[in-house]
Amino acid sequence: MTKGSIKSFLERKNIEISAKRYGIDALSAMAQGLFCSLLIGTIINTLGTQFHIGFLTEPVWIVNDTTSYTVGGLAVAMTGPAMAIAIGYALKCPPLVLFSLATVGFAANGLGGAGGPLAVLIISIIAAEFGKAVQGETKVDILVTPLVTIGIGVGLAAWWAPGLGAAAMKVGTLIMWATELRPFMMGILVSVIVGMALTLPISSAAICAALGLTGLAGGAAVAGCSAQMIGFAVMSFKENKWGGLISQGIGTSMLQMGNIVKNPRIWIAPTLTSAITGPIATCLFHLQMNGAPVSSGMGTCGLVGQIGVYSGWVADVTSGAKAAITGMDWLGLILISFILPAILAPLINMGCRKLGWVKDGDLTL
Fold this sequence. Notes:
By secondary structure, the chain is mainly α. The protein folds into two domains: 3-166, no CATH class; 181-354, no CATH class. The protein is built from 16 helices and two strands. The chain has helices spanning 3-12, 19-50, 54-57, 71-77, 79-90, 95-112, 116-134, 141-179, 183-199, 204-211, 215-235, 237-249, 257-262, 268-284, 304-319, 327-354; strands spanning 61-63, 67-69. A two-stranded antiparallel sheet has the order 1-2. A hairpin with a 3-residue loop joins strand 1 and strand 2. The protein is globular and about 75 Å long.
């Protein structure tokens, strides 16, 4: 096959091997798939639990009398398929390929653990492009296209996804090393690392859950995640208005990953903000997250991080470890989670704009 014929074949199949197609279009779509599954499911579960809404907390499906799913639980369970189908949509996959990616995403996310989203991104792209390549080339597309897409996708998931999950957990090793430092340095490092993990296509929540990250380190993690989410939400308000404020502020800052790939300097402001709020959380307010460890890596997504801090306070008061929930506790939580990121990130970003590092439109979703 000559170079010209290969190029002609790729064009005919709409296979565009480029940083934009894979690093911006696919990644941005994947973030939307994540929002429509894991994040919205987490928000639904949190609403049901905190407001005691029966139909949101009671199982709607029980499998083999052992595994039960709530409404939110069903959404969370579909995280992998939702991300993979979103990626396929961005890659302009034909129907048979697009629908086959549901299985690929489920396998990659499940086998990838903390690196599930990253595994879904890489493996879904490869499976989708191979599926597109064979689609329309035989008289039995209804068999060949799903077989190739699913076969390659699941095969790669079994081969690569566990390794990608292990690589993501290396971030956890770095976090645990940071927790052994003094509160000031620990506050900076944990806040920055977990906050960046939240925005990257890996699961900060899964890492925190696996590490059992609570206490002061958990508080620093909440600070870092909140700095990324609220920081991006507020500093991009000019471009994204109220929809962007809500989707990033209580959804996920991963929505900005496509823009970060195009211009990494937009990440400076939220990351520096987390480096400031982390040690304030640990050293000034002694903010601890003693709820479920997974909450440490959720930030303001559905306010799960803040609810985790509050539930930890309640548990500590009940056990006698804490005398009472004070006004200083509430002041620290509100400042760290919302007010300081909403002030600091836009101010720092203004400096980046003056230096010419960030321009209008760089933060548009």
